[in-house]
Structure to design on (195 residues):
């Protein structure tokens, strides 16, 4: 999984791209144990599929969704949404990637530290950002209580309809990336864009 920054700032955009896909693992090489099952030789852990290599059409489709979703959105907002969803999903790989991207784009350390507790630190975020974070929480945790009307209405009050659709698409995209990274065992700090 490779990501680049938004095109709306001087910093490069953070889009997931397929350019060079490398496997970053400190585990020993996998050995074949049964049809369709691979385990790491020394640790007994299951080696995960290289999603970009084995499902390239699907991977490119997710890249396309990600790129289309972020079009026209403020780059700072994009990173806040991606950081919040990654935090909620427990995706250290994406959280590391997006906090670094946000720093490179000029985001303050104070705001980055407050994303995890944004409801208690509203003074760090604009009303628009708060609405996006609330919607991110609701959509990411959709299994808990659906998407409450209050969260949707708050976002609809801050975003024009087309922009709201982009925000929703971005939330869907980062939740997809989080699930890909978690399911395939991506390791935080191994940003494949550097590979």
């Amino acid at each position: 999984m490779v990501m680049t920054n938004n095109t709306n700032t001087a910093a490069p955009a953070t889009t997931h791209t397929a350019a060079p896909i490398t496997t970053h693992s400190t585990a020993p090489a996998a050995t074949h144990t049964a049809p369709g099952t691979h385990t790491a030789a020394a640790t007994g852990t299951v080696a995960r599929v290289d999603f970009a290599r084995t499902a390239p059409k699907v991977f490119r489709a997710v890249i396309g969704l990600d790129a289309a979703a972020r079009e026209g959105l403020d780059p700072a907002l994009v990173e806040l949404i991606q950081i919040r969803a990654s935090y909620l999903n427990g995706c250290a790989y994406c959280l590391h990637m997006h906090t670094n991207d946000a720093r490179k784009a000029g985001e303050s350390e104070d705001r980055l530290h407050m994303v995890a507790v944004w409801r208690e630190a509203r003074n760090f975020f604009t009303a628009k950002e708060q609405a996006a974070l609330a919607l991110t929480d609701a959509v990411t945790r959709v299994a808990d209580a659906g998407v409450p009307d209050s969260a949707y209405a708050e976002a609809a009050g801050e975003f024009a309809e087309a922009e709201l659709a982009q925000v929703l698409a971005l939330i869907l995209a980062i939740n997809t990336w989080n699930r890909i990274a978690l399911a395939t065992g991506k390791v935080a700090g191994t940003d494949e864009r550097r590979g």
